[in-house]
């Protein structure tokens, strides 16, 4: 059986449901592959044309996208699609129009240079000169960058027309120019970038509409990509300074968002001498949203400037730790942690440690969480100096009412412990805060602590595991009322067992667990069973092994159904 | 508790608005300047010292201060308020307006610009209560408002005043002035928008030669709302102004106005924040239709095209508007829209939202609508009867079930034979509208099978063929495919 592919498509396209028509439209690729170029020209394109007036935007959006895909299927003949696409780029629904612009760009890739000059450029000029529909002009602006580079003898013509577009009064067109001019600069010859585009962008930077000035930030940055440092200093830098002092916070904010990228493009020298003052001003901005964005860019910026100039920003960082807005503080934490790596040890210790301590006791829990994370990085950067001062803070954080803070704290403690690698210092300072995880109220915190044990034991050896750690576990198992904590202690013992050898398990661990196989609480018996089962896998001694099996066997008649089941299962191994 | 404080705040401001100048009611020593002016015998020649004083005060009021911080420049701010009050009082003396204010309009407008043209602040809610989409009773207050209000009041009175004539004012009301002025309509402060509305309205009334320019700037504002930002706080206020502009349009409408109706008024319906200005939009639409009833079909088409998705409150609004607009439509012109219209109504009636269904049922209580229904009987009966009959039996809500049964009776009364014929059709074509997803899937199986076959053939023909991903399937999110996740969408 063979269906006529085109008919199947039509059948679906006549469905009442829009979503099915959208689906069908996306499958048109299948049809095109099967019916071939000739039928696409004679059947499909006229059919599409008839849809333009009556279809829903969703379907037309799909059509605009698929036209680009169809072009891929018929690279030599893709110009056949341009007529439809030209109509779609003048559609007033933004997403349809943008999609059609993209598809024209795709089609252009398959066209030869003469075709661009003879077909595409005239089309572009029609769009740019359409006085009735400003949407065509917007599309023309969006298409400029993908066409201009190959416009050959028409380049002059296009530049002139673009100059006209830049003078357009409709705000929508101006905004399009402001947002696309950076891309266009990438394609244009440098002399014209300097002669024409810079003038336009300068005027836009002085436009009274803040939305337009806002779009200029990104465009300025992109134009800078094609200029050398001399040209940047003369043309771009003054405009960036203008933006940094803009009366609208929206403009300052959009500059703050990209200032690190700007620094990268403008180069270290300009960053060192001209951008640092701009940045410090944005960090002190009276609008909190600007400060937040500036702080988010800060770390990348600091990494771009010379190390010896980092100190210029330290004052700002210290100030920001006292910012009234929590979001600012949340973001400054990471910066402080990372900056410690860039500064001389002594300096960071003196200036930044106090800031972090303060942030660790902030009233906003997200600030506290980020501060703790940063503290981990910081402590490693200053090579654990004066670790004792940190311990009270870590202790407080391990008792934080928010479990996410405690989660971050235990993770930080684990990181520190793994880096430290000195048993005596570990026992002296970190151990006491580390073991707090055993009795944490949040399962997440407990399980993170548990999962770190193996690695920690491999660093601090089994003497520690069977000594201090085991002692702590036993303490909890014996004295603690909460079954969850006792279960956790049992799991900790299981982790210890994974890290040590059979004989030690026999003498040190088994006697403890044996006791809890008879605990009155079923869940404890249940977990003890699990732990005992892990012992079986590692123990070499026949006698002990038999002893364990017998104990488990004794639980076959346990009153609790789950314990009973698990006991039977454990012995099948 | 919070509501109560908000309300009391509002009533307080309401009072303030009603009496914009409470100070005049209190016995108060006449301000220095008015006092000085009183001794001027010949108003045509204002003494230099008075003129200087006047200019000094204008200049002083043009200084920018940080109004968000009450602790800064306390003294200057007090002085400023006093000067503004004096300047305001001056507007009551026609002689001085002519001889002092009008010659210095440039400085006065500059003073106004320096005060009101500012980057709009973000007003943050202190409490983060309130669900998404809930209307917040708590109004946001711009701390700078108390300092801005006198400037607005001054501007308003300046325009209301008869002395400054069109010629002298016109020079200052440029395109860029209007553009910046319109930007301010996005302010979150409702009292500010109220002033802006009144001022713009009067400017439009007064400056006849600037009308076209003002309309164009308003157009641009709406284009931005429709195509780019999807949110504009002052849309309702601008539409209020438009309503009175539209009532002044001459009949027949000029082409420019018809284009405006088609490219602004109709697309405004599709914006997500439509609820905030729908009342005003409806008024504008109806005014247009009263001038030119032939536009009604375009509006019906637009409404059906931009029908809300997953927003029942908006659906109810659309239904209200649709019925109102239909009453203006010429029945013969509706023909191409009939299938879409009736299918939409059936979907609303069969839909899960009771209020929407109820509103849609109201259509059948409207005589004009019933006439439309009768005029297109060959289409409407086969569509309506089987569907209505089925949901009348199965609907979950008793009241709606009753009105569905009543509707059945109405349809039967209209044409008993056509009703019976439609009811007894073996395979009703339109029942699928109320079908559940499972059955629809079953119906799709045959054609899906065909697609699978075609895909296989395509793969045979071209081994590099990439199978297309369809957006609407059970496995992924449509938002990733409809181009709407471009960061511009505001979630209300």
Automatic annotation (TrEMBL), chain A:
Q: In the UniProt record, which is one GO cellular component term? A: protein phosphatase type 2A complex
Q: Which regions are annotated as HEAT repeats?
A: 44-78, 236-272, 275-310, 352-390
Key words, A-Z: Repeat
Ranges for domain TOG come to 221-451
Q: Which domain of life, per UniProt? A: Eukaryota
A GO molecular function for this record? protein phosphatase regulator activity
> What is the recorded name of this protein?
TOG domain-containing protein
Question: Which species expresses this protein natively?
Answer: Paramecium sonneborni
TrEMBL record, chain B:
| Membrane spanning residue stretches | none
Disordered: where is this region?
A: 1-31
The UniProt entry, under InterPro entries, shows: PP2A_B56
Query: Can you quote a single GO CC term?
Result: protein phosphatase type 2A complex
Ranges of Polar residues composition bias in the record: 1-14
Residue ranges, compositional bias (Low complexity): 15-27
Query: A GO term (biological process) for this protein?
Result: signal transduction
Q: Which GO terms describe its molecular function?
A: protein phosphatase regulator activity
- What protein is this chain from? Serine/threonine protein phosphatase 2A regulatory subunit
């Amino acid at each position: 059986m063979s269906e006529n592919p085109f008919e199947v498509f039509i059948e679906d396209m006549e469905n009442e449901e829009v979503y099915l028509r959208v689906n069908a439209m996306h499958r048109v690729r299948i049809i095109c592959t099967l019916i071939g170029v000739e039928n696409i020209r004679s059947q499909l394109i006229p059919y599409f044309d008839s849809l333009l007036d009556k279809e829903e935007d969703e379907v037309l959006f799909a059509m605009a996208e698929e036209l680009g895909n169809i072009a891929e299927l018929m690279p030599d003949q893709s110009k056949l699609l341009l007529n439809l696409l030209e109509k779609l780029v003048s559609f007033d629904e933004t997403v349809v129009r943008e999609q059609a612009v993209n598809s024209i760009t795709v089609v252009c890739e398959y066209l030869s240079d003469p075709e661009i000059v003879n077909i595409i450029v005239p089309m572009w000029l029609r769009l740019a000169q359409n006085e009735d529909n400003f949407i065509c002009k917007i599309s023309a602006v969006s298409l400029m960058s993908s066409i201009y580079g190959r416009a050959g003898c028409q380049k002059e013509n296009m530049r002139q027309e673009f100059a006209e577009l830049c003078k357009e009064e409709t705000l929508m067109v101006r905004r399009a120019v402001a947002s696309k001019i950076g891309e266009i600069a990438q394609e244009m010859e440098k002399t014209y970038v300097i002669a024409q585009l810079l003038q336009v962008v300068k005027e836009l930077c002085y436009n009274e509409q803040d939305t337009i000035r806002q779009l200029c930030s990104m465009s300025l940055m992109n134009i800078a990509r094609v200029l050398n440092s001399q040209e940047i200093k003369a043309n771009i830098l003054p405009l960036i300074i203008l933006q940094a002092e803009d009366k609208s916070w929206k403009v300052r904010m959009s500059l703050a968002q990209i200032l690190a990228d700007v620094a990268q493009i403008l180069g270290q020298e300009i960053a060192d001498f001209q951008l640092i003052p701009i940045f410090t001003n944005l960090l002190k901005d009276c609008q909190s949203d600007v400060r937040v964005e500036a702080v988010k860019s800060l770390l990348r910026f600091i990494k771009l400037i010379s190390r010896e100039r980092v100190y210029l920003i330290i004052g700002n960082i210290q100030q920001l730790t006292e910012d009234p807005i929590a979001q600012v503080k949340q973001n400054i934490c990471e910066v402080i942690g990372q900056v410690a790596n860039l500064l001389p040890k002594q300096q960071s210790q003196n200036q930044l440690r106090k800031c972090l301590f303060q942030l660790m006791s902030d009233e906003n829990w997200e600030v506290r969480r980020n501060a703790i994370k940063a503290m981990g990085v910081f402590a490693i950067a200053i090579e654990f100096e004066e670790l004792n001062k940190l311990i009270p803070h870590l202790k407080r954080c391990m008792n934080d009412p928010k479990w996410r803070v405690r989660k971050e704290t235990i993770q930080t403690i684990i990181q520190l412990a793994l880096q430290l690698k000195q048993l005596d210092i570990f026992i002296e300072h970190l151990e006491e805060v580390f073991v707090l995880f055993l009795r944490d109220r949040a399962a997440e915190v407990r399980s993170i602590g548990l999962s770190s044990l193996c690695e920690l034991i491999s660093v601090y050896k089994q003497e520690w595991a069977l000594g201090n750690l085991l002692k702590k576990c036993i303490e909890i198992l014996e004295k603690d009322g909460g079954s969850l904590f006792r279960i956790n202690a049992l799991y900790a013992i299981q982790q210890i067992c994974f890290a040590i050898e059979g004989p030690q398990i026999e003498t040190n661990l088994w006697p403890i667990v044996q006791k809890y196989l008879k605990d009155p609480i079923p869940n404890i018996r249940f977990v003890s069973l699990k732990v005992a089962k892990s012992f079986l896998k590692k123990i070499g001694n026949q006698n002990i092994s038999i002893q364990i099996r017998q104990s488990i066997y004794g639980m076959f008649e346990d009153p609790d159904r789950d314990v009973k089941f698990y006991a039977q299962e454990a012995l099948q191994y | 508790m919070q509501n109560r404080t908000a309300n009391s705040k509002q009533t307080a401001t309401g009072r303030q608005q009603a009496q914009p100048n409470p100070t005049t009611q209190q016995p108060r020593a006449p301000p220095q300047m008015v006092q000085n002016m009183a001794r001027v015998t010949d108003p045509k020649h204002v003494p230099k010292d008075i003129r200087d004083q006047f200019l000094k005060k204008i200049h002083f009021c043009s200084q920018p201060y940080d109004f968000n911080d009450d602790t800064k420049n306390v003294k200057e701010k007090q002085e400023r308020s006093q000067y503004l009050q004096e300047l305001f009082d001056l507007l009551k003396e026609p002689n001085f307006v002519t001889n002092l204010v009008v010659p210095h309009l440039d400085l006065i407008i500059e003073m106004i610009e320096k005060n009101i043209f500012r980057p709009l602040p973000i007003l943050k809610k202190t409490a983060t209560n309130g669900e998404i989409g809930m209307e917040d009773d708590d109004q946001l207050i711009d701390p700078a408002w108390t300092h801005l209000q006198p400037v607005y009041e001054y501007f308003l009175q300046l325009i209301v005043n008869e002395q400054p004539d069109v010629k002298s004012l016109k020079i200052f009301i440029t395109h860029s002035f209007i553009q910046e002025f319109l930007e301010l309509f996005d302010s979150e402060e409702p009292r500010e928008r109220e002033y802006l509305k009144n001022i713009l309205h009067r400017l439009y009334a007064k400056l006849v030669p600037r009308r076209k320019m003002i309309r164009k700037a308003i157009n641009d504002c709406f284009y931005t709302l429709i195509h780019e930002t999807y949110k504009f706080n002052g849309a309702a206020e601008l539409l209020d102004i438009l309503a009175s502009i539209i009532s002044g349009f001459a009949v027949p409408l000029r082409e420019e106005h018809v284009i405006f109706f088609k490219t602004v008024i109709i697309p405004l319906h599709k914006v997500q924040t439509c609820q905030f200005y729908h009342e005003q939009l409806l008024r504008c639409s109806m005014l247009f239709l009263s001038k030119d009833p032939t536009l009604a079909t375009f509006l019906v088409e637009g409404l059906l095209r931009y029908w809300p998705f997953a927003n029942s409150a908006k659906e109810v609004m659309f239904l209200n508007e649709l019925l109102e607009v239909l009453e203006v439509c010429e029945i013969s012109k509706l023909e191409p829209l009939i299938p879409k219209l009736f299918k939409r109504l059936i979907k609303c009636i069969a839909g899960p939202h009771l209020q929407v269904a109820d509103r849609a049922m109201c259509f059948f209580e409207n005589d004009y609508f019933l006439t439309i229904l009768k005029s297109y009987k060959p289409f409407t009966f086969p569509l309506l009867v089987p569907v209505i009959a089925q949901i009348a039996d199965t609907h979950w809500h008793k009241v709606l079930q009753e009105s569905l049964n009543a509707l059945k009776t109405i349809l039967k009364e209209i044409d008993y034979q056509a009703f019976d014929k439609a009811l007894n059709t073996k395979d009703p074509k339109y029942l699928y509208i109320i079908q559940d997803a499972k059955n629809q899937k079953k119906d799709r199986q045959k054609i899906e099978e065909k697609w699978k076959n075609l895909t296989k053939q395509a793969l045979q023909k071209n081994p590099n063929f990439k199978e297309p991903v369809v957006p609407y399937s059970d496995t992924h999110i449509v938002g990733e495919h409809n181009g709407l996740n471009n960061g511009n969408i505001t979630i209300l």
